[in-house]
Fold this sequence. Notes:
Layout: E1 10-13, E2 20-22, H1 26-38, H2 43-51, H3 56-63, H4 74-81, H5 89-103, H6 108-125, E3 132-134, H7 138-147, E4 151-156, H8 161-168, E5 175-180, H9 181-184, H10 191-202, E6 216-220, H11 223-232, E7 236-240, H12 255-259, E8 266-267, H13 270-282
Parallel strand pairs: 1-4, 1-6, 4-5, 6-7, 7-8
Antiparallel strand pairs: 2-3
Amino acid sequence: xxxxxxxxxxxxxxxxxxxxxxxxxxxxxxxxxxxxxxxxxxxxxxxxxxxxxxxxxxxxxxxxxxxxxxxxxxxxxxxxxxxxxxxxxxxxxxxxxxxxxxxxxxxxxxxxxxxxxxxxxxxxxxxxxxxxxxxxxxxxxxxxxxxxxxxxxxxxxxxxxxxxxxxxxxxxxxxxxxxxxxxxxxxxxxxxxxxxxxxxxxxxxxxxxxxxxxxxxxxxxxxxxxxxxxxxxxxxxxxxxxxxxxxxxxxxxxxxxxxxxxxxxxxxxxxxxxxxxxxxxxxx
Length: 284
């Protein structure tokens, strides 16, 4: 007996590099904040200190890529030491900022004197549209899915500031709930964070109308955290691979990695996502 296919009723999005992106490259924004206190730090050193190696450990072990990249970065080393924002996002990011500056050659004494001011400025910047912009297709996708009678939500390994960012960028209030790793104490790719998201969505529905994992689609740009994590929770998934400047892709596996796996369905933008959902639901 054939199993009836379930329509997509909920689409969840990752946040960073899926629906929003830094307004300027992160190392440029860090450089702007550092300069009044520490002088001009070499941009390439800043980029390497913050970003290089962010995804290396996950994908090299899984796919045997033999990649040659420096093994240390402020973000990635702290991510290993203190997962899910350790003792809190402010202290966590303060340490990332400190390590980034030192790794780029900043004077340690000058940094210690000015660190509080630098951290305050950067946290404020990356809590608003000053630090981020919405991708051109992001808000449109949320509206289109609502017209298709499909709910939307966010599942992100971000801290709580992402709420103020999306609000400042005028994302629709229908993009809810926002399930964030800092608040949940669990992060992608754990299926648990996806299960919690669905539980929050279903808490507002009656028992006869609950959404099942099979009726959910997750969209994100990281193969392990987004694609594999969502599928492990029983959801469908699309891997987003936007055409971006190379340095904005340093956190993810190369496109060739996803293309080497026959089971990965890739889209290049969010208009392709809404088209996928419309087509999928219309063919049931």
